[in-house]
User: What shape does this take?
Amino acid sequence: MWLTRQRLTLQKPTKARDGASRTELAVRKGPTSEFSRVGLLQGLKPNINSAIVIGTTKVMPCYKAASNRFRVSLFAVSKVMLLLVTFYGTAEAVPFQNATFASGSPEACTPPEQMKAQLQGKPGAVALKDLGVWFADNKQYACAADAFASSLQTDPNQKDVGHIAFMFGVSLDLSGDMKEAIGALQEAEQLGYRDINLHLLLAAALDASQAVKEAENEWRAALQMDPEYTAALDALSNDLLRDGDFNGVIALLEVPRLKGQRTPLQSMNLAAAYEGLGKLDEARNVLRDGLNTASDSLPLANELAKVLIALNDRAGAGTVLYLAGVLAMEKGALEEARGLLDRAVALGDNNADVRDALAKVKALAGK
Amino acid sequence: MFPAFRASQQTKYKAVAYLTIFVAAFLTINFLPGHGKTLGIERILATAQAAQEGPQTLLPISIDYPENGSIFPPGIAPPTFLWRDSAGTSWTIDVAFAGKAAAIHAMATGEHMKLGPIDPQCVADSNKPPKLTAQQAASWAWTPDAETWRAIQAGSVAGPATVAITGYRDGHVAYSRSSVEVTTSKDEVGAPIFYRDVPLMPSAGVNGVVSPLAPTSIPLIHWRIRDIRETESHTVLKDMPTCGNCHSFSADGKTFGMDIDGPANDKGLYAVVPVEKHMTIANKDMVHWNVDGKVGTTRVGFMSQVSPDGRYVVSTFAGPNEKLLDSYYVTNFLDYRFLQVFYPTRGILEWYSRATGLRSPLPGADDPHYIQTDGVWSPDGKYIVFARAEAKAPREPGQEKAIYALDPNETQIKYDLYRIPFNDGKGGLAEPIVGASGNGMSNNFPKVSPDGKWIVFVQCRNGQLMRPDSQLYIVPAEGGTARRLRANTSLMNSWHSFSPNGRWLVFSSKARSPYTQMYLTHIDAEGNSSPAILIDNATAANRAVNIPEFANVGPSADAIQDITVHVADAPKADVAKAN
Assistant: This one.
């Protein structure tokens, strides 16, 4: 029987002499490995539609990796502890090189040779944390999660507990255990760990778990740290739109800083919010400006044409559809191009360029 | 509803359009000078054909720069027009004037916006190379040649010129069009801009403490000067062994002052020298703030201002009983975009007499219960405008450290603007300036216009200096309703300075790039400002421009060629501030 990983309840970090929390000191102290430096502290930028890149490793976002999910249980943690105690704690009698243990994952968790000394005897929290970092660096995320969990359980008051809880959560997330990852990341948050990546990961996981309101809070927390973070703006506007909070979408995206900078999705969402409020002129303006930035976006062109038709600007819609049709043709999407050009003609846009383009599409399709 | 009528009308319109184009072509070819002649008869015919065959509706182009209503200073170097257009693949630019000046027609070759060259010395692990934003990457650019720009400027003084950009496909069919109106002011800028040019290279020391710039990189800080009529600036000072901060010129342009961090970064030196073509700062020119313990041992660290006549300097000091570290809040970040938060939380205004070499508290602005800072002189030297807030410790015990600019964990402080008579150093009653106080925001960094009529100041949510949300406001000098300047850009607006005639304001912004750039805006007699005009090519694309200050030395930047520092005991290692 699989058991749920024990939710860690850890004490708040104590304050250092200069007033900074221990968590901050850990951050300030800087990275301990490639994993923490590149992956966790700086480079982790989940993208809604693409894989997350950590260091040089490309992995799927947690919610896309659901099919690969495997659960890491308390049983597994206990097993790690047991194995560690067995192999390193009891002693000397068991040579390190024989130490290979299994987590709840299909992969074997084999500690590295170079950490042998650290793991001799009863391994301390720091050694376990370092082990977790090593596993993570080597893309053994389930093993890393187990090692971090062991570290946290060994010493819940250790210096950089928030950071370790974060790494624990990230490892769970990357190993596909989203539900447990959410708990661990929330724990890291409560422990005072502060990093935009924490909010981004948590928000993405919460969104994937349909906890939209909680996800929105996390996206907002991320945007407070970086108001232009594209993935957060995309996702939060999605969530708000899903809630029917049109004014919320407008408040989020209709800001001077984003004018001309919106992604096609943001432009679509903002326009949809205006449309939801019956403000078609504003929707048109947003879509036009968005299309001028992302001229190859067929969804934007389609939406703009739709709004223009609703505004009785059939000629404008025809022109937009013609241009989109040409673009689709250039991309080789001949069926789509033909559909767009047919619609342009149906709207009365029947100038020579449109006729030529339609004939060209038909000819290409005929081949 | 009336298809026959509509068809008939359309035919008529097309006929009229056809005729109009031929007439226009005839006039263009035969009567208009310059660029009008570039239109060949084949092109006219093609355009006329397009009138019949093109789309019925032209799509709008997004013209990003210059903004509609922009006012350019006379003689400024040609700007680069920027627009985004999903429809066109080539463009024409048509400039029509309100007066009798001949229209101008030019063609854009379809070049995208480009970044300028970078300074390889300023590349670091802690910063990123400048990169075009999505908007900028999608932008098309056109820079008029000098002759065309002169013609546009000449024709747009009496009234605005309309610059229409038309996008074509296949070279002849118009698909998109938009226009903006721009004006050239009669008001000259009349003075060069002196500014600091810094790398953005935050550095974490071995102990993890972040500094805005590694000590070894301090010599990369440059001071430059720019005549806006020129296309580039020249460097007047570099390779300083210590960090120089705020500089100021007296209103008469004869005296120059600069805060210098000094030994052990105690902010203890101030240089005051006459303005000359070849300036030298030597030991004799240095004021050592920290030798006179009677009025406090430390200066807080910025915004010393030379009086209009050059006789005095007003600055912020910690006061008799405070230590430097207890008087200002500072946090540095490894994020090069906004790498430092810095503002004083305790301090008083003191004035220094160059004649006597003494400095004294300014009564009325010397209350240790308040932080009194950012003092600036009125043009007649009779009063001082400054920022004030309740004094507080820079950090409370247990206070979480801010990890990014505008982090709620920053020490919260909201300044109000006050004015106080200087009264030959005797001071007086400090009075809040209505419109720049008690409004729930932090009002700071005041500058008084040379005619004494206006104060332009920064408003932000917390603290001061380099705030991402900082916006420029204008308020009557005696107080009144504050108005947000039209010139404000979308990200950080600060470090402003009036031109000697008061008609232009220069300021810094990160609107286009994390690497701060400087902009101009016109201020009319009623205090209205115009959209921001970029001063292009002020530095490398990966360096930041800050503290731009007009120097009243005549229009040419040649008035200050170079500044040499000969300070024998200048410290070799210091902690710099960069922005």
Observations:
- The radius of gyration of chain B is 27 Å.
- Confidence is low (pLDDT under 50) at residues 1-52, 570-579 of chain B.
- Chain B touches chain A through 39 residues (CB under 8 Å).
- The longest strand of chain B covers residues 173-184.
